[in-house]
Structures
1.
Amino acid sequence: MHIKVEKRTSSAAGASDKPKHLLEVELDDSATVDELKSAIHKHAKKLYPDRQRLTTADKAVLKPGESLSKYDIGDGAVVFLKDLGPQIGWQTVFYIEYIGPIIFHYFIYNFSELIYGQTVEHSAVQRYAYILIMGHFIKRELETAFVHRFSNGTMPLFNVFKNSGHYHILSGLNLAYWLYSPATANGTLLAAKLDDPLMLSLYIGIFLFAEISNLITHITLRNLRPPGTRVRRIPTGYGFNLVSFPNYFFEIVAWTALTCMTRSLAALLFLVVATLQMYLWAVKKHKQYKCEFPDYPKSRKALLPFIL
C-alpha cells in the first residue's frame, strides 16, 4: 500500500495549519508504525524514528509497536508528521542529571580551601550528610545502568538543560555550598549543628529505609516490563497497594529526613521544589493509569497514602 506523509505548516496569517507534502512510501498491508517510521527515515535521513511524531487526520497519535490497520490506515491514506527536533536518550539524560550533584558535592566537600578560602573541619552532620547524598546519587546512576527500563526512548535535546539544572543547581551547587560551609560546621548558620546522637541516628535510619524502599519499587517497575517492550501493567506489591508512585513517596521521605537532619534551607528548597514536581507527575500519571486500566484500584492514592 502507498501512504502519503505530510507536514502541517502554519500560514503567515496565523490561520489553521496547512499540510505540506513530504514524501510517499510503499509498505505491506500488515505494516506497523515502526516500519512506517523506518521507511520515512530511509527517505529523509534527518528524520530518525525517535524524532518523528505521526498522527492521523483526526490527530490520533500513532504509537510505536502498533499496526497501521489499528488506525484504519490503508492504501492512499495520509499521515501527518511533526519533526520533534534533535533527541537524546533518556538513559543518557539520567546519567547527565545525576553526575552533576556527585561532582559538586565531591569537590566542595573535599576542596573546601579552594571554595571557602579555609580548610573546613566538618561536623558529624556534614560528614554523614555527604555520605548519604553521595550514596543517593551514585545509587541513581547505578539504577539507570542496571534497573530502569524506559517506555520512551528519547526526549528533546534542549530539555536536558532544564532537567539537569534542577539537579545540578538545587541539589548540587546550592546545597553543597551551604551545607559544607564553615558556618554550618560550627553551627552558626541556621543552627545546623545537630548534637544529639540519637536524633542523628534516627534521621540516618529513616533516610536509609526510604532509599532501600525506593530501590525496591524501582525493581518492581522494572519487572513489569519485559526487555525491549513497551508493555504497561498495573504495579502491585510493596508500597504500590497504597499509592501509585511509592518511588516518589519514598524519595520525599528520604529528603525530608536529610532536611531535618541538616536543618539546611538549601536542602529545604530542593525538597519543596522536588516534591512539587513529583506531585505534578504523580497526579498526571495517576489519571493516566485510571483511564488506561478500568480495573485500576479505586482506593489507591497518587502520592501520599490515604491522603493524596
2.
Amino acid sequence: MDSIEEILGELPLPPYVTAEDVGFAIKAVTVHAAEQWPDGQRCRNDRAVHPCRLYRWGRRVLDQRGLTDRQVQVLIAEQEAPQP
C-alpha cells in the first residue's frame, strides 16, 4: 500500500449493493486492473501499487453482492465487448 493509501484508508462500501453499484464496481475493476512494471504490479490507471483503492473497493462490492469469480469475469467481458 502506498503511504497516501495508509492515510486515506479504504473506500466505504454502500449499505446495500444495487445493480448500479455492481456496474460501478465492474468499471473500477476493469479500469484499475494490474499492469506489470519493473518494480512490480501497478494499477494501469493511477500507477499505485496494485491492487489500488478503487480496485479493492470494486472487488469488495462484488464480493458483498455474492458474485463468483466466474460471474465477475463474464461481467468484465461484457463491459469490454465492443458495442454495436
